[in-house]
Amino acid sequence: MAARRAAIAMALSVVGRYFATGLQPLTPQAALGHGDRSGRAEEGAPDALLDALRLRAGLAAARRIRLILERIASRATFRYELRPEESTGHVTGQLDVSRYLMRLGAVTDVPTYPVLTVRRTEHTPENVLAAYAARWILRELHTCVAAIRIPSTGPEHRRYQEERQALERVLRLPWLIACAPAAAQVRHRRAERDLLASVKRRLHRREIANTAPYAELVDWVERVLAGEPVVDSGDLEWDFYDDRFDTRLFELWCLRMLAVGISRQLVVPVPDLDPGWRIDRPAYTWHQYAGSIELYFQRSLPRVAPGRRARWRRDDGTSLGGVPDMVIRAVRPDEPASERFAVIDPKLRQRGGPPAEELYKVLGYLDNFGLSSSPLGAILFQTTDTEDLTGYIYRAFSPEGGGADHGSDASGDGKLYAVRLNPAAPDASHIALAPLVTTVLGMLDIPRLDQYANEQPTNDEGERFYRAKQAELQACAATIPPQLLNQSRHRVRMALGDTRWQTLGGQTQAMLATAEHIGFSLLAGSDARQGMVDDYSGPVIGVCASIESVLHDCVITPATSHDTALHEDCGRATLGNVIRIIEDSLNGISNPQPKHLAVLAHLNAAGIDKDAVRDLVQPLRRISQNFRNPAAHRHVLTQQTWSRLWQIAVSEDRILARVIDAVAPPPYTGGGEEDGTERPPLSG
Q1: CA-wise closest residue to 553 among 538, 539, 573, 537
Q2: What pLDDT is recorded for position 372?
Q3: Can you give the residue ranges of every domain in the chain?
Q4: Does the predicted TM-score (pTM) go above 0.70?
Q5: pLDDT of residue 228
Q6: CB–CB of 254/380 below 8 Å?
């Protein structure tokens, strides 16, 4: 039960969309579907989804209020009150003196006397609140059913009838009938908060004997009025699909976990679930500079990649098919023919050892569709363990390896994963999934970018994204065809000048060339890079990081290398902070810190022209504010932004060249002349 609740809470967005399509195979017709049975008529309609989820929440709330009312009914509160009545012929109760005196002198055929009688009544604030909540939920159920077309034989309709009839029976109890008029007045006057305050005072004064259910009712109504959900995500009533849905729930949870795991390692937000994920679209797609990763749910390989045909066929030509739960497709932008695949199957059944039979099934599927040369597959199976989720990894070894070294990755050209997962232990499950996710990124030669983002601890998500994007650009250089990358290297080298180019470290050269290639490929509207044509933040980060690298290599690092603590502190400085350190060092602030003294000492010792450096402070600050900071904070940058930065930094204003001229120490003299002087390249 705990695992089911955790799985629903984690995958709620996917589960809701799954039911909204009406394609689930558990009933003969769509339980929440609209239009035809395929669900295509309303696929992705937000109103349909919201109405469907509202009905589910209403059914869950009806069950909860019914259970609370049943507990209250066993010991409903009451109180005694004096009621004015008339006694005919003689006094039968306590005489109401004030009313009697007002009537003195009146002549009647039969004498009547105003009296006060003591009566027991259930008309208390807490019972009025119970009646108000029950009538509220009943109205909500009527509204939900009127807003969404559900089949009369569907499970939602059956549950609606059950809950409606149960609430109507409860509302016919005498103690709630007595409170109905007051509950209607509360709704009419919008006096819910006054009623809640009155009940809370009675609870605080211990005037209510049956405290627990009334307190639960008060807390629930108060939270709902404050805008919180009417039920918790784990309380939503999926149980009327009984245990048959648990298998599908585990599959949907695994789908969401993979999406979150891939996004974490790429240091990007989890993409939106594609509206067409149940028909012919990937559920999630990640567009990276090295290529695209597509995650499909319950799609056969020929539907993911029409060019893939089954090798095994019957005599009548029918293919041996099969639909795995998840298929991942990775394709490079410049090489569509280089697409790679991974087949992943979640299995709910628990096991004491590796799921060998299911792994053979995955291997057979890969071989049937010609993917046995570099296979990648996985079985995700459930465990009740909350800490040790150790799984199994199998590696395929090429015949050339001869099987001599079965403990080395050197000869391996395929992998199979058997991963233990537990929805009740999401953190441990993410750790268990991480090796599989890393291998999926490896299909595009993308490393774990979150490791680079975490190299220097920071709570700034913008800086984590900035570092991850730098690492991605460096990794992307290996995926660009050599002739194209060499062309970009040549163009940047010509723009900067040969000697300045040699001043840059190898990683900085690769990052600049990659940024140039990607930026101008996007600018040209390359069809191979569809999905990324609207965002130039990566190339912008590449150029800004190159300037930052030069300042660190030529100023910050040599100035602080004598002091380990100072070097560690300044080594994490961003472009804006580096500019501020240099400016404060040059301006001679009244209370200089050790880093300012160290930078100033280095500038003097290296013979660097401080006036030339000072002239660069304002242009560099504008680059940091207008380009680097928006890119680091995931703003979508346009082609105009990229073009302008390239003009400022490289082609026209030549800020990068001026920075190299100003801060690079001898023997490089700068000045824009190519004197052929050789110097060792700086480290990236």
Answers
A1: 573
A2: 76
A3: 46-76+127-241, 79-121, 244-307+322-445, 461-663
A4: no
A5: 72
A6: yes
